[in-house]
Automatic annotation (TrEMBL):
Transmembrane segments: none
Record-annotated Carrier domain positions: 10-94
Top-rank taxon: Bacteria
Protein name (record): Acyl carrier protein
UniProt lineage: Bacteria, Pseudomonadati, Pseudomonadota, Betaproteobacteria, Burkholderiales
Pfam family, one: PP-binding
Length: 96
């Protein structure tokens, strides 16, 4: 049994809020962080981000949480599907 798993799950709402703030700051979004739906798509009808925005966010996440998000990762579509999926990925891989 992994003792860290419950801490990761209980920390997700906090991490989602941190990442929402990171999105607003890194991308100069006009949408307040508190209004970003963690389950909404980051692309298209959701937050409306494009690939350049995601690269900027990936750099910020890598710097802040101590692990690298790679552009050639086959799971990027899943990782960046929503704020919630990104938070779950960060929770599993963060070193800071």
């Amino acid at each position: 049994m992994n003792a860290a798993a419950p801490a990761i799950v209980s920390d997700l709402p906090t991490l989602e809020r941190e990442l929402a703030e990171l999105f607003v700051q890194a991308l100069n979004l006009e949408t307040p962080a508190a209004e970003i739906d963690p389950a909404a798509s980051l692309f298209g009808d959701g937050l409306g981000l494009d690939s350049i925005d995601i690269l900027e966010v990936a750099l910020e996440v890598s710097h802040r949480y101590g692990f690298q998000l790679r552009s050639d990762d086959e799971n990027n579509h899943q990782i960046f599907r929503s704020l919630r999926s990104l938070a779950a990925h960060v929770a599993q891989h963060r070193t800071k």
